[in-house]
From TrEMBL:
The keyword tRNA-binding does not apply. Keywords: FAD, Flavoprotein, Oxidoreductase. It comes from Streptacidiphilus cavernicola. Gene3D superfamilies: 3.30.390.30, FAD/NAD(P)-binding domain. Residues 2-296 form the FAD/NAD(P)-binding domain. This is NAD(P)/FAD-dependent oxidoreductase. SUPFAM superfamilies: FAD/NAD(P)-binding domain, FAD/NAD-linked reductases, dimerisation (C-terminal) domain. Its cofactor is FAD. Residues 318-403 form the Reductase C-terminal domain. Pfam families: Pyr_redox_2 (PF07992), Reductase_C (PF14759). The keyword Methyltransferase does not apply.
């Protein structure tokens, strides 16, 4: 039997590791479009950008694992009837296929080549060279990536302006009253955060620093922000364009629409990680989770089911972000209408604070700022779906536990 995994990021590599861990002894091919040995992405916006780490490669012996690792090999098409994967280096037959092609950073329309994205190792290395003391950096987007890029740039002594179209930071992920609380983090770090500010374009300008091309970010209100470097951090989309014509069903956001066992619409083809969505019985909706933990845990299910298993994937999603010296962690999935309960006082942030979302008294999501223990306890409550006593849950001196 030949099992092929397309995409050598976290989800693809973990699928390969899990397949071997679960006893698969047949042929195993892992192919990735990038020329680099597979690497982890979270350090790119942290230690790699700060120059504390040269790279973030996974420490794995692919040969020892019996993985035929094909780098610099892009999948270009798929014929699920014939079980053939087309790649830049020829066709590959498979018996089972796992799609793990992740996501691509979204660029602004007409974005000049000099503007940076932050998705790949090469992106991080290119941006790192621009983050010099005194350099003026404009970050477009106050989401997770924008906040982390701004954090690193301030640490490296850059002058940083963050431009966000929404009225508050993190607007795509958190309710406005929660995202608003992060505004002071920018101010305290010396970052000029401009919200409700739409970008009309980025144009080349007179270079000011040796080796860096100058740019100007044009805002729709007529303001021009001069920059020595620009980072565009406005989100990522599932990297599934190469599946056009394959018949593999995608959802309305372009992710591979997998079932609860991470099977796709084609026999013998599975999908996992940032490129896929799956139905969650727990949250009664289809989820696309573009976070590390999902790539790790989904891979175990994809591997098991590719080997004939019947596992169901219905996680409590989890992610973390390190911004402006704070550890921000979130578990679960909230939606409008859930009751928001503050834990601790965000206005007096010593010791951290949190927000808990309750539905009929049961926690469905939790945000913890500098409170990792809350995250661990809250995640368990969410997993078990147990009622909490709201007054005790609001008291940060009391451990988070069932009523
Ligand atoms: P990817 O990591 O995107 O890997 C997919 C791989 O497939 C890529 O290497 C790509 O080159 C390859 N590929 C794509 N198309 C093809 C093709 N046609 N043929 C062959 N190969 C292909 N999550 C957190 O929870 N916490 C964090 O702090 C955090 N920080 C992050 C920081 C950065 C800078 C980034 C970019 C992401 C961060 N994430 C974080 C998100 C997390 O890294 C992703 O959710 C995770 O990498 C998803 O893994 P994946 O394998 O599904 O996709």
């Amino acid at each position: 039997m030949r099992l092929v995994v397309v995409g050598a990021g976290m989800a693809g590599v973990q699928t390969a590791v899990s397949l071997r861990g679960q006893g698969y002894e047949g042929e195993l091919v892992l192919l990735g479009a990038e020329p680099h040995l597979p690497y982890d992405r979270p350090p790119l916006s942290k230690d790699v950008l700060l120059g504390k780490a040269e790279n973030s490669r996974f420490e794995l012996d692919y040969g020892g694992l019996g993985v035929d690792l094909l780098l610099d090999r892009t999948a270009t098409g798929l014929d699920p009837e014939a079980r053939i994967l087309r790649t830049g280096g020829g066709e590959l037959e498979y018996d089972r296929l796992v799609l793990a092609t992740g996501a691509r950073a979204v660029a602004l329309p007409g974005q000049p080549a000099a503007a940076h994205l932050l998705r790949t190792h090469d992106d991080a290395v290119a941006l790192r060279t621009a983050l010099r003391p005194g350099a003026r950096l404009v970050v477009i987007g106050a989401g997770w990536i924008g906040a982390e890029a701004a954090t690193a740039a301030r640490k490296l002594g850059c002058e940083v302006t963050v431009v966000e179209a929404a009225p508050v930071p993190l607007a795509g992920a958190l309710p406005a009253e929660v995202g608003e609380l992060t505004r002071r983090w920018y101010a305290e770090a010396g970052v000029d955060l401009r919200t409700s500010c739409a970008v009309g374009g980025i144009v080349d300008a007179e270079p000011r620093l040796e080796g860096l091309g100058g740019s100007a970010v044009l805002l729709t209100d007529g303001t021009e922000l001069d920059a020595d470097a620009v980072v565009v951090g406005i989100g990522a989309r599932p990297d599934t364009g190469w599946l056009d014509g394959s018949g593999i069903a995608l959802d309305d956001r372009g992710a591979v629409a997998a079932d609860a066992g991470l099977r796709t619409s084609a026999e013998g083809v599975f999908a996992v990680g940032d490129c896929a969505s799956f139905p969650s019985a727990r949250y009664r909706t289809r989820l696309t989770v573009q976070h590390w933990d999902n790539a790790l845990h989904g891979a175990k299910v994809a591997a098991a089911n590719a080997l004939g298993g019947e596992l169901v994937y219905d996680p409590v999603p989890y992610f973390w972000s390190e911004q402006f010296g704070r550890m921000v962690q979130y578990a679960g999935h909230h939606r409008p209408g859930d009751e928001l309960l503050w834990r601790g006082d965000p206005a007096r942030p010593e010791g951290g604070w949190g927000a808990l979302w309750l539905r009929d008294g049961v926690p469905v999501a939790l945000l913890a700022v500098d409170r990792p223990r809350d995250l661990a306890q809250g995640r368990r409550l969410i997993e078990r779906g147990t009622l909490v006593d709201p007054s005790r849950a609001a008291d940060p001196a009391v451990p988070l536990k069932a009523a």
